[in-house]
Amino acid sequence: MEKTCYAIEPAIYMLQAxxxxxxxxxxxxxxxxxxxxxxxxxxxxxxxxxxxTLAHCFDFLRKRAEGxxxxxxxxxxMDDVMDYFGFSGSAPTTAAVPGEAGREPxxxxxxxxxxxxxxxxxxxLFED
Length: 128
What we know:
By secondary structure, the chain is mostly helical. It has a domain at about 10-85. It has helices spanning about 10-20, 25-40, 55-65, 80-85, 120-125. The relative contact order is 0.15.
């Protein structure tokens, strides 16, 4: 049985280099989501190229959201990111956390510590 080898590293390198250069939270979020996706689907890594940048993806998302405006609000999501890169799979259902590419999201446990009660009156806030 022949095993297919995909060159995923150059694709991830291009995305990571752009995130490092731009230092923009939106681009980092998009980039981490794309890295997470191509890490799980290496056959899609060839679709990431020099002309498919995170900045261009963000512009694409902005235009998509503008075209979907309802009551002055437009929304674009991960399905649109998938469309931009031409990925054939489904959009990830978990949000990417900047700087956490490749790590599984962790659920936060509810705090067991009691929060101390604060007792004060509104007048105390404005006393001289």
